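Box S1 | Example of a co-folding query
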Amino acid sequence: MAIRELKVCLLGDTGVGKSSIVCRFVQDHFDHNISPTIGASFLTKTVPCGNELHKFLIWDTAGQERFHSLAPMYYRGSAAAVIVYDITKLDSFQTLKKWVKELKEHGPEDIVVAIAGNKNDLGDIREVPMKEAKEFAESIAAIFIETSARNAVNVEELFQKISKQIPPLENPEVDSNESFKLTRQPPPSTRRCC
Amino acid sequence: MASEDLPSEFDVVILGTGLAESVVAAACARVGQRVLHLDRKSYYAGSWASFTFNGLLSWIQEHTAGSQPETEELHDWSNLLEDGEEMICLSNTNSAPFSNVQVYCYTSEKDEEEEDEARSPEALNTTEEEGGRGGGDEDGVTEPAESHTAELKEEEEEEGGERRQEGAADAQEEEREEEQEEEQVEAFPSRPQVSWGDRGPHQLQKTCGLNILHCPITQAIQTEGEGPEPESGQPRPSAAPSQSEPVKKKISYAQLLKEGRRFNIDLVSKLMYSRGSLVDLLIKSNVSRYAEFKNVTRILTYRHGNVEQVPCSRADVFASRQLSVVEKRKLMRFLTSCLEETQEEQAFAGRPYLEFLRDQQLGDNLQHFLLHSIAMATEDTPTEEGLASTRHFLRCLGRYGNTPFLFPLYGLGEIPQCFCRMCAVFGGIYCLRHSVHSLLVHKDTNRCKAVIDSRGQRISCSHVVVEDGYVEAARKPTATPTRFLSRAVLITDGSVLSSESDQQVSLVTVPPSEAGGPSVRLVELCPSTMTCMPGTYLVHLTCQSVSSAYQDLSPVVTRMFRTPESHDQEGRPSVLWCLYFNMADGSAVEVEGHDLPSNVYVCSGPDGGLGHQHAIGQAEAIFHKILPEDEFCPPAPNPEDIIYDGETCTSPLGEEGEERGEEEGEGEGEGAGEEEGEGEGGEKEEKEQEEEEEEEEERDGEVQEKQSLKSEE
Ligand SMILES: Cc1cc2nc3c(=O)[nH]c(=O)nc-3n(C[C@H](O)[C@H](O)[C@H](O)COP(=O)(O)OP(=O)(O)OC[C@H]3O[C@@H](n4cnc5c(N)ncnc54)[C@H](O)[C@@H]3O)c2cc1C
Ligand SMILES: Nc1nc2c(ncn2[C@@H]2O[C@H](COP(=O)(O)OP(=O)(O)OP(=O)(O)O)[C@@H](O)[C@H]2O)c(=O)[nH]1
Ligand SMILES: [Mg+2]
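Box S1 (continued) | Returned holo structure for guanosine-5'-triphosphate
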């Protein structure tokens, strides 16, 4: 099966559980005292989708969002973005719109957007009604799901939904951009120009 | 997105997010230092930044118009001083290293199609001015009288501008711009605001009216630089397939604005040597995983009024149609012998490389290629330097492609951002639109103990790294840099040398037009570098300043492209829009000898060299001053190493290796110049080259770095 690498970037206020969601998804693990993501540029997990394998490269903000200083390169080449809010914090939902706007300005045009209302295990102190969030997501044609990184609710589903929305590989012509990553090995030899 | 207070204790505070500062930030955070990295701008990379088209218009606005930049209110934070401390204020004005910013727009402001479409309200605002013109543009035949006047007006204004510039200070230049601003703003008082991109709408509106002298050229645009299908009216075959644009239609200014996000326009124009210090650092540190790159596909040169391809790889040499068989042999022999030191070259030590080349009796063609395009030397470059450059060039060939150079997707401005991300991943804290008001220095030790940020917070630290622009002139060893660079940025509608593929990335060396003049380096980027919109090319020109950027570079632009000043430039690409500016040459900025505490280190800003050695060297030196014991940018762990990947166990390296093996095999089979190559005695040389590469591999401990030279031929 062909492996397709998909970059997914996470957005959302600090403390909403972005890292916890990735940690749950990638390692199926939850840690109450998760330390700010240190040392990991991005995490990966491969899931099957149709007759392809989707290898998610999940980028966490590395805290650069804390002082409104995310770099445009964070969004480059992202196939999808997950904007996370905390259902127990109205503020974190209200800033969602700012993140959507930011994404429109800096993100790729065809990016798949998913909104995740996290910490839905804490329903008794909920501040954000599900209906309102769902309607907002629909208004911007985004995927919507409520998750709990703690109880492993809907985290897999979130990424499955994203997988399904990723358009099939475009015609190879457009894709054969001949750009490459620098590794300790050289990239494939390119067509010569004369 | 809530704002918090910054922590009040760090090990290293870094001001400015240019390349050198960002590398220092990444290197320090990587080995566990607590890093605070600030930039007073709202964007990353400072003088190394790249901008969307609209972002660049705001930048232009900021650097003309005599804009009094963010002069923060004067605060008195002296209450934050502790015993035995004194305060050193940093520069709060934006003493930007840019001057002589000039913009010209040579395309029509908007085209008819767009007017017809019901577009967002901002598109309608200019209709009054454009009323009489649309039809003419669309047909590409009639040139409205209006644009003649526009042209004249433009030239007049230009002359005025130039005269004033000669020997004139920037202040005057800014005055001129200010005058214009007033005029123009009054002239279009009722225009609705254009809201675009991430900058203020008002700024942009002013920019449109103020700096840009519209000067449409609509005649004879059937002959695009692109290809040989003129009048037919068929779609341009080589133009980006996604765009259904008729041949004759020129991209309008409105379209540039509309597609502005597709542009990533660098202030600095450089390339990455494939075996240069930047590439090595990116790979070594694993920062390379944050970015993607393309090969520069062609080395070109400008000679006798034409753009020619420089054969530099063996494949090129053998495939070249410009070179005779004799020349091919001579060139191959020279390039082979050049790899080793010979007694001959010692005899030329201290004498110009040109003399050495003459002595080799290579003929004019080869001499030109070797001197200007391969060594990128001038007529007085000494032989040993010329040979060293030639060797460096040859060493860099074939690692990733047919030329020694790479270019990052989305522009060079990505690179500092990549290092910043590495820093952030290792706990560095980032804050844009934030600066430092002053350094607090312990008088007895002459060391900086803390800084006061622009909000009056005292932040203690052990080391401070500052970009030169943050230092007050009075504390610098020399108030102004001794050398400047002249830069031009063009958006054109075709390549300087059309070829089968319209997705070429080219380095063009333009030798001085008169002896002693500056040689101009031109980098042409195609849309697949993600730096310009489909159907356009982004062209960067750079040279050492002799006078203003416009005076240094516009003659080259006029000769190589089609502008209203060009005569008889059929078949040349048209310039749609262009920008000229001067910037300080970082290699002429002193980084030692400042009147600053001993634990404050200065970065110079970008230099004029083609590669990145200057900035990387500077960063490494600063790192070793801060942390003499620590390793500079050891590899960050692979995500695969820290995280169990449930599905696949194959490492990506393994996969890629296999794929590559196959592709190389194919390459071998279809090598067009291959047989000829072997006939010419290329075999022997291949071996040597391979041996050399193997040595290098051993040294680097890189297992699979070899790219078969055969596949190149
Ligand atoms: C012997 C020598 C001569 C140089 N001559 C010039 C010059 O005439 N004009 C100028 O502007 N700059 C010169 N430089 C500096 C050089 O231009 C810059 O290093 C260049 O900008 C390349 O930067 P990079 O980071 O892409 O590659 P680098 O990091 O510079 O390349 C990696 C290695 O190649 C070597 N190297 C780099 N550039 C050259 C070169 N031009 N010639 C030989 N070896 C090189 C370096 O020693 C380095 O170890 C010279 C450097 C050296 C070592
Ligand atoms: N109850 C509950 N707590 C959660 C859940 N997800 C995360 N948390 C907690 O919320 C806190 C913040 O989680 P993080 O994953 O660090 O949040 P983040 O968005 O990555 O934060 P930054 O890295 O600071 O931007 C942690 O204490 C988590 O334990 C959840 O689903 N339910
Ligand atoms: Mg986190």
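Residues 3-96+410-480+594-626 of chain B form a domain with the FAD/NAD(P)-binding domain fold (CATH 3.50.50.60). The radius of gyration of chain B is 27 Å.
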